[in-house]
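quick one before i forget lol
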Amino acid sequence: MEVLVQRLADALRARRWRLATAESCTGGLIAATCTELAGSSEWFEFGFVTYSNAAKTALLGVPPDLLAAHGAVSEPVARAMAQGALARSGADVAVAVTGIAGPGGGLVGKPVGTVWHALAWRGGCLAERQLWPGDRAAVRRASAAWALRAATQAAQAEAA
């Protein structure tokens, strides 16, 4: 993960951008991974750990009716989390992760390993669903790596 964080740091510094994270199933792993790198205060702005639905609403502004209609592990909620983190942090790019890391909690249509990721930046937002294999730790690591790669690609694309 060190290489992914360094690439992200380089891309964000080149744009003079700052990153925010909105994390549920990763529980702050993305933010912790970013801040392991010395000098991350130059590009890491804010980390939200919104494990509960109430936290998603209170801290990120995710509408309760959106959570009720789609569930926390859904594309609309992942997008709302990323957009809320962007709006509330003042960052230039935000990543969000919401999913079922396991070992329990899987549902029909949302098995363990189901994770919705979202990336928001000024002028855009994208979301992607993944079904990560492995145990809880593997799902969380894969989700964090997705977030680091996606934020790097966004900063690099904007720089091009």
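fyi The chain has a mean pLDDT of 96.
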